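Final report, Chapter 2: Outcomes

The project's central promise was a pipeline that accepts a single protein chain and returns its three-dimensional structure in a standardized token representation, suitable for archiving and comparison. That pipeline is now operational. To close this chapter, we reproduce one record exactly as it appears in the project archive, with the input sequence first and the structure output second.
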Amino acid sequence: MKPLSVVLAGGGSAGHVNPLLSLADCLRRRDPETIITVLGTTAGLEARLVPERGYDLTTVPKAAFPRRPNRAALKFPASLGNAVSTARRAMVAADADVVVGFGGYVASPAYLAARRLKLPIVIHEQNARPGLANRLGARMTPYVATTFAATALPHAHPVGMPLRQEISQLDRTASRGAAMAHFGLDPARRTLLVFGGSLGAQRLNEAFSAVSSDFARLGVQVLHLTGAGKGVVVDTLSEGGDPARYRVVDYTDRMDLAYAAADLAVCRSGAVTVCELAAVGLPAIYVPLPIGYGEQRLNAASVVAAGGGQLVNDADLTPAWVRSTVIPLMNNPALLRTMATAAASVGERDADEYLADFLDKATGRS
């Protein structure tokens, strides 16, 4: 039997790229001979992340669905046709057995090309509210996997979010000492993790830096990931605090250690973030991004309902709210432990394996 040849299509944001790469890694662990071809655009994060992980990237022209009748809408049929032809050529060159789509601009052309070639299509939808590309693709295949059970797609089969092994295999307790040393934190103190993703979140940056002296005075240390290229000014000395106890880092590629160091996180509620925190059992206060169609609020719904997290509106995230809500919670270790257990109860560490099983079913290899 020839090695399995898999075409993975998705990109744009980390929410599409990270689960794609997690599945690719899982397939290669199962069989190192598996042929992996990734379709993406030149503009998305996949242009950097896919080659860095050691996989070949075939770029597909971006074909954005028009939202209103204008000049771009007139050009869309030709743009889509070009994208579908590029995706089809890549599938033929790879002698593909199956196409797995994760959403984003490249997914729709990939689904259309796969249908023309009569290849099995597998879809993974990351968000609780599905995107346009996957809503289209779900009409073409019975093999639709979702992160959340509440996602409304035809043939939806919940498997969870495929995660990087450094996250899915993380033992927070065992890694705590190494995490504290890595970030220069005190292992004897409770730690709050504040982050807004790789680009940061200005609302979080401003609200928490404004009350940095309160944390220092009360003996709570903070690991604040501000976002690449962004910084904040903190004042921990005015109340007699230790400036080392409010650690500001613009970016880290060791989020596993950031999770291991923390007792509570305050962050956005992108699907990958929510699933990572639940998988490792880290309680969180989620601040949904106030744009789009409310998908970030839906992403956090199950972990919040289980008691493993809380929600706060972006507009309500003020220094006064941090003082009245976050600081008391950080000083309630019993409640933090209860929330951690609740978060872990809805977390899923093996979604990459489940999605790979689903792919085997679609290809008849199970």
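Archive annotation: Confidence is low (pLDDT under 50) at residues 237-241.
This record, like all others produced under the grant, will remain available to the consortium after the project formally closes.
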